[in-house]
Structure to design on (107 residues):
């Protein structure tokens, strides 16, 4: 069981969490993955999203807000869940849980 100290989410780490897969960094990875299976009739949309990068690099607590919520949010959630591990953030030289924000217009 996590102690209260271990469950704190650091909003301002000294070093931000980092993700890169095959040389493509986040958020470009999310946009690229989303575009791979875009259907005809796609409508551009604005997305605001946040999630927590855990101390071990896993992603948790995904929150998505978009004008196309029902149509695209589950697809974006799947992309985030399948990204793989991140390099976690650091605060005062220690690995910490960090919240990551994503605000973009996907077109």
């Amino acid at each position: 069981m996590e102690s209260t100290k271990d469950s704190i989410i650091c909003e301002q780490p000294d070093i931000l969490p980092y993700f890169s897969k095959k040389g493509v960094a986040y958020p470009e990875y999310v946009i690229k993955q989303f575009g791979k299976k875009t259907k005809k009739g796609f409508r551009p949309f604005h997305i605001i999203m946040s999630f927590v990068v855990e101390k071990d690099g896993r992603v948790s607590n995904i929150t998505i807000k978009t004008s196309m919520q029902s149509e695209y949010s589950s697809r974006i959630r799947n992309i985030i869940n399948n990204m793989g591990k991140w390099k976690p953030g650091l605060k005062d030289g220690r690995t910490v849980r960090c919240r990551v924000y994503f605000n973009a217009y996907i077109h």
